[in-house]
Every structure is written in C-alpha cells, then in structure tokens.
Specification:
Elements lengths: L3 H5 L5 H12 L6 E7 H9 L10 E8 L7 H11 L4 E5 L13 H6 L4 E3 L3 H10 L4 E6 L6 H13 L5 E5 L5 H8 L8 E5 H7 L2 H10 L3 E4 L3 H17 L4 E3 L11 H10 E8 L3 E10 L8 H4 L15 H5 L23 H4 L4 H8 L5
Parallel strand pairs: 1-2, 1-7, 3-4, 3-5, 5-6, 7-8, 8-9
Antiparallel strand pairs: 10-11
C-alpha cells in the first residue's frame, strides 16, 4: 500500500484522517469482494487512488451503475434513425455522443448535418421544444432513478404547456433487478454492495433492504467524497467478514429511509416498470421504465413507430464482461489500442463514468 499519512494528511480534518488511517491498516484479513454499484463511485475511487490505500485482500469490482454503459446498441440505433429525420432535433447528454451504434454514432451523424444538441438537463430539451415549435424535439432519456424524476417532470410540463412537439426516447432503468441478478450469481462472488447515495436520496434505503433480505448480501449507502467512500468500504468489509446481512446508511445527511416522496410520485405518474435490455446483462424483467399509456403522445418509441432491433456488439469488445465484474478492462484486446476515449469501441470507454475510461485515465492503481 502507499503511505497512508502522505495521502490522508491533506484532508480537511487531520484527526479524522489519522483515525481513518488506523482503521485502514486494520483491514487485513480474509479476502472480500466489494462491488461499487455506481459509475460516479468508480471515478472517485480511481481519481483519489483509493484502491492503493487498501490491502490486497479487498477487491473492488465496478458494477453496472453507469447508465450510458448499460444502454444497449439497439437503443443507439433507434436514436440514430431519428437523427436522420429532417423534422427532428435530438437533445442528449454529452456522454451519448460517441457511443457506437451498429454502423454510426451521434457524433458522426452530427458531422453529416443532423441537428443534435448536447444539453445538461432534460429541462434544457424542453426549452428547445418551446423555442422551436416547427420541429419535433426528442430527448434521449437515459439514466437511473436519479434522473428519471426530472425526465418525468418534463413530460408533465410539456402537457401543461401544450408542447405537443416534445418527446422522450426512454431507456431509463432501475437498479434493484440488475443487482438481484448479480447478488444471486455465485460465480460473480460479490460479498457486498457499495450503494450510491444519489440513488438512495430518491428511492430511500428500502430498495437496498429488499436485496439484502432476498440474498443476504450486505450493503452500505455512502456518498462520493473520498472519506465517504473509505468509511463505506471499512464498514462494508466488517459486515461481510462478520456475516451480517444488513444495510448501513452512512450518508444520512442526504439519504432518508423514505427517500424523496415528491420525486418518486412524479416518476411513478409518468413511468411504469417494463422489461429492459442491459448491455452485459441481457434482458432483465421489470428493470426498465416505459412511459404510461396516458402519456403515449410524448413517447418517441410509439409516436415515431420505432423498431428496437438488436445490434451486434463489436468483435472482441469485453464491455459486457467488464460491466458484470468478470474481467478488468486491461484484459480486453482493444483496451488502450483500438479503443480509447477519442475512438471508443465500446460504451464503457465512452462514458465519463465508464470503468474502461477510468482505467485509461487513471490506470489500474492496484499497488
């Protein structure tokens, strides 16, 4: 391990840092595998060199919590179909621009003249619809429980403001079913989950309790600062080694047991559960969010009669295996060669939260 004193001395609370260093030194013991579910956790872990602070007996595995990474190629192909329509303006988060479809990408189509605009919030897409009533604005709605409520809000506002030219192409997903799949996979060997505080702030801790009750896999809800993550890993390691199948909420300043009732009510008013394809995990029943029938006029899938045809993953790309924690990015034949952030082969290299992008930018940082 690197020298803990050198790394922790810059933290704002020196006494807390020294106490944390002592706790980290006491983590040696039987091997444990911890999956950090969220892509933001993955990036923070790499950025702050957290892997290097841990003994080799603790294995951190990146999970499927990067929404861009788990978005299937079929969705990108549908978005590309829409981008070629003269009357359509595509609004999207920047991470989706370079995600490859079967034969193109949004970046490539924009260079060919398609009207594709990067936005920072779904509400920006709604403003484009208000400013361009002669066009049909399609927001590429990709994300988990954290962004779905805002996407739902745009539909409700579009209804109230009579913006009949605004549509969502939804690939929104929810975490529980995917995590249940991993928790029940003995081959994956995950001992516990480091849960994202941003999802917990919306859903509450009940979502995570259900997984523990079904599979006995413990978890810790935590934030994204280095101290948050380190405390979460220490607590979770203790739960795993003691065989305690329960959830600890170490992000109480943000996450409440009941979550955010207002956000959940908006989400549930517009969306309903549906089967969804996850890159790397396949079809997971009731793990997606589709627009309810009463709001079908805002559903791009139905309005534009899009067909979701399964695309073919690039030959040799190990993105599916990376997303399930079965391999690390450096095991892929394309990593750092044919596949880079400027020229990605798979989605895990495209997203700012992707595991491959983290490995490329910061290195494996295992020693």
């Amino acid at each position: 391990m690197r020298d803990l004193h050198d790394i922790l001395e810059g933290f704002r609370d020196p006494a807390a840092a020294r106490m944390l260093a002592d706790r980290l030194r006491n983590l040696e013991g039987e091997p444990v595998s911890i999956m950090e579910v969220c892509g933001t956790h993955t990036m923070s872990i790499f950025k702050y060199g957290i892997r290097s602070l841990l003994p080799k007996s603790i294995r951190l595995v990146s999970g499927p919590g990067c929404p861009v990474c788990v978005t299937p190629m079929a969705y990108m192909d549908a978005a590309l179909q829409l981008s070629k329509r003269e009357e359509v303006i595509i609004a999207t988060f920047g991470d989706l621009m370079k995600v490859p479809g079967s034969s193109s990408s949004l970046t490539a189509e924009k260079q060919r003249g398609a009207d594709i605009r990067v936005v920072y919030s779904p509400l920006d897409a709604l403003k484009i619809a208000a400013d361009h009533t002669d066009k049909k604005i399609v927001f590429l709605s990709v994300g988990f429980e954290t962004t779905a409520p805002v996407c739902a809000l745009t539909v409700l506002r579009a209804r109230d403001e009579d913006l009949s030219n605004y549509f969502l192409l939804s690939a929104n997903k929810t975490m529980p079913r995917a995590l249940e799949l991993i928790a029940g996979d003995r081959e994956a060997g995950i001992g516990g989950f480091l849960y994202p505080g941003n999802v917990g702030a919306i859903t509450g801790t009940a979502l995570f309790d259900e997984i523990t009750e079904k599979f006995g896999v413990p978890g810790v809800v935590t934030g994204f600062e280095p101290l948050d993550i380190l405390h979460g890993i220490i607590t979770l390691t203790g739960l795993i080694r003691s065989g305690e199948g329960r959830i600890e909420n170490e992000y109480r300043r943000v996450v409440r047991p009941e979550g955010n009732p207002i956000a959940l009510s908006k989400l549930n008013e517009v969306f309903e559960p549906c089967d969804a394809i996850w890159r790397g995990l396949g079809m997971i029943p009731m793990s997606g969010l589709s627009i309810r029938e009463e709001y079908a006029g805002f559903d791009a899938w139905k309005v534009f009669e899009l067909v979701e045809e399964a695309g073919t993953e690039p030959a040799g790309c190990l993105c599916p295996q990376v997303l399930t924690g079965r391999v690390t990015p450096d095991k892929c034949m394309h990593f750092g060669k044919k596949c880079t952030p400027d020229s990605p082969v798979g989605a895990c290299m495209v997203s700012s939260e992707g595991t491959c992008a983290a490995y490329y930018r910061f290195g494996a940082q295992t020693s």
